[in-house]
Amino acid sequence: MKRTALSSRMARRIAVALVVCSILPLVLFASLLRPAHSTALALGIAALCGGLCAIIATVYLERLYLPALRAARAGVDALHQRQAVALEACGEDEPRALIEALSTCSAEIEEQFRILQTLHEVDHLLLGSAPLEQVLEAMLSRVRALTHGHCAGITLQDGDAPGRGCVYVTAEGLDDLPVSRVALDRGILATLAAEAHGLTIARCEEARHSFLTPLKHTGAEVFWVWPVIVLGRVEAILAVGFKEAPPADARISRCGGEFAARLGAVLSRSEREAQLYRQAHYDPLTALPNRLLFREHLAQELAAASPGALLYIDLDYFKRVNDGFGHLAGDQLLAVVALRLRAAVKEGDLVARLGGDEFAVVLRKVVDAGAAAAVAERITESLRQPVTIGSTDHAISASIGITLFPEDGVSPDELVRNADNAMYRAKDLGRGRFAFVEREPAGPAAAATIAASGLQRALRKREFSLFYQPQFAVSDGALTGVEALLRWHTPTDGTRQPDEFVPAAEESGLIVDIGGWVLDAACAQLAVWRDRGSMPPRVAVNVCAPQLADPDFARIVRAALDKHGLSPESLELELAASALADPEAGAALARLVQSGARLVLDDFGKACPLTYLRRHPISVVKIDRELVAQLPHDAESAAIIETSIMMAHALGKRVVAQGIERIEQLDFLREHRCDFAQGFYLARPLSAAAMTELLGARGAQAVSGSVREAG
After folding, report:
1. What's the domain count of the chain?
2. CATH code of residue 363
3. 667 with 571, same domain?
4. Which residues are CB-neighbours of 566 under 8 A, at least 6 positions away?
5. Residues 177, 214: one domain?
6. CB 350 within 8 A of CB 297
7. Is residue 235 in some structural domain?
8. Which of the chain's termini has less CB crowding within 10 Å, N or C?
9. Is 267 in the same domain as 287?
C-alpha cells in the first residue's frame, strides 16, 4: 500500500512538470497572438518559453531523483565487490525508500559474508591437524563473536566414561580455555537429540543442565543450546550464554546450527577413523593390541634406546580345550588369559595377542634379567590357576621366552625370533616355565636345538609347503609323475631348502613328525588333482631312516592313502641308501610293499651296495645327480650310468635320472634307454598352483624339447 502511494505521488509530480512545460507556452502564444503582431514572432516566443520551461522541469527532476539513483548505483557496485556500504538516505519518497532498503540489504549480505568466512575458517581448523584445545578455542571464540554472546561452551562426551563429559568454555576476560568435568543427565541428552535445531534454556537447573554450570559461572543467565549428533547419538553439546535474553534473531539459531553441524561432521569422521584404527590394531576377542600394533610399539621402544624386555608367551594344552570343548570355550579361556596378563604387568607395559594362543608382553625400563624374570614368574603363577568355563575347570599353563633389549636384538624381527626360540626352550624344559634366550650357543648341539625349536614352531604355524618336481618319460616326453619336495618359509630368513634344516630335524627327532606332514600333504594334493581330472600317475615322497624304523609307519602310509581315497599305486616312497643299512629295514620294507606303495632307491651309484637291489623289494632306482652332472663328457661317469641302467633293467627295475640340466645329458640317457628323467632342463620344482596349471595344459603329456617353468 505504501509503495503504491509513493508511486502515485511520484507520477503526479512528473505529470505536473509535463503539464507546465506544455501549457505555459500555449498561454503565452495566445496572449501574443494579436493582429498587431505577426504569427512568426508569436511562434518564436512560444518556442523559447517552452524550452525554458523544459529546462526548469529537468533541473527540478534531476535534483529530486538523480542523487538517490547515483547512491543506489554505488551500493550495487559495492555489493558486487562483496563490500558493505552505508548509504545516506537522500531524495524523497520512493528514492529514499529504495536507498534505505538497499542499505539494509547490504548490511545483511555483509553479515552473511562474515558468517561464511568464519565458517570457512572453522572448516579449515576442524579438518586440519591442530590440537583439539586450539581448535575448540578458535571455534568457540568465533561462535561467540557471531552470536554476540557473553560466553560459549562445548561439551564433549567422554568415550571412556559413559555419562560424563568435558566442558570447554570461552568468555569475555578469559585468557585460557578452562575445562570442567561434569556428569551428564540422560533426560536432557534425550531431549536434545529430538531438537536438532537447538533450544533456549532460561532457567538453569544444576543437575539437569550440569553442562551449563561452567558457563553460568561467567555471568550468563540465558542459553542457546544445540546438540552435536553423530550416528544418531548426541556426542557433544554447543551452548552460547547471554547475560539477558537476546532479541528474537534467526541469525543466532542459524549460526549455532551451522557450527554444530560442522563439529558433528568432524566427530563422525574421527569416530570412523578411530573405529578403523581399532579394527586394524586391536584383537576383537581380547581387546588387546594385535600383532601389527605390537610391532609398532616394539619398534618405538627400540628407537627410544631405552632398556626393556620382551616376553613371548605360548599357552600349553590350549588345543586340548579348543578341540575337546569347542571354540567358544577356547575363546572364553583366551579372554580370561588376557585379563590375567594385564593384571600381572604394570601400567605402561604392553600386552598383545599375536594370534591363536600366543601372546607377547613388552616391559619398559627393565634393566636386568631379574626384573623380567619376576614378571614372568607372576604370569606363570597366574596362569597355573584353573579357568572355570561353565561348570568345568580347565587347567592350563604357559611357556615363556624372554629377551632383553638392546642386548638380545636391535630390531623387532631379531627380538621376536630370539624370544620365540627361548619359548621353545621353555617347552623343551617341561612347559609351564620361562627361559631366557641363549646368547652364545655352546656348540653344534646347541645350534641344532635352536634350529629344532624353530622347526617345531614351523610345524605348529604351518610354515612348510611342498613343491613338485615333474618327472618325464625319456622315450616320448610323457609326464609320468612328480616328486614332492619340502620347503620351509621362515618369517625372517625367507625360504630354506631341506639340506639347511633336515639334519637338525633328524637330530632332534622332529623329522618323523615333519615326514608325516609331508606324506599327508602330498596325498591331499594328489586327491585335489584327481578331483580336477588332471592327476599325475604318481607322486614320490622322501622317507628317512627314523620314519622307516617306526613300526607303525606302514599303517601311517596306508591311513594317508585311505584318508584321501587314493590307490597304493599312486604313491612312491623314496629311500636313501643309509635307510637300508639297518638290519631291521627288510621287515619294514616288506610291510610297506604289502601296503601297496612302490619303493624307490635314491642316489644309486653313490656308495650304494648292489646287494640292496637284490635283497630289498625296490621297484625303481634313481641315479645320483653328481654322476648325471658329468654327462656326456666324463667317460667314467658315463660308464657307471650305462652299467647301472643295464643292471637295473636286468633285475626288473626301472631307472630315473635326476639333475638333467642340458640337452646333451638327455640325449645320452635316451640313447642308453633310461626310463625317466627330471631336472631343471625339463622343469623346475613348481608350487602346487603352478603344477596344477602344468597338469591342466599338458594335453597329450608330450614335452617338446623342454619345459621351463619358474618354481
Report:
1. 4
2. 3.30.70.270
3. yes
4. 523, 526, 527, 530
5. yes
6. yes
7. yes
8. N
9. no
Task: Check whether residue 223 and residue 307 sit in a common domain.
Answer: no
The total of other beta-carbon atoms located within 10 Å of residue 599's CB is: 18
- Domain residues for the domain of 497 are 460-697
Last residue of a domain, one of 410, 439, 468: 439
Give the separation between CA 707 and CA 679, rounded to whole angstroms: 10
Domain boundary among 251, 275, 299: 275
For the stretch 238-265, pLDDT in tens is 899 998 888 766 667 777 777 777 777 7
pLDDT at residue number 22: 55
Distance CA 293, CA 283 (A): 10
Q: How far is CA 444 from the centre of its chain?
A: 42
| pLDDT tens figures, 514-534 | 888 999 999 999 999 998 888
**How would you class 575 by CB atoms within 10 Å of its CB: exposed for 0-12, middle for 13-18, buried for 19 or more?**
buried
Locate 268 and state its grid cell. Answer: 563422525
pLDDT one-digit tens code per residue, 302-342: 888 888 999 999 998 888 888 778 888 889 999 999 999 99
Tens of pLDDT, residues 636-645: 889 888 988 9
Tell whether 703 is covered by a domain. no
The single-letter DSSP state of residue 289 is B
Find, among 540, 481, 467, 472, the residue nearest to 706 by Cα.
472
For the ranges 17-26, 354-363, 693-702, the maximum mean pLDDT occurs at 354-363
**CA-to-CA distance for 401 and 311, rounded, in angstroms?**
6
Q: Is the pLDDT of residue 449 over 80?
A: no
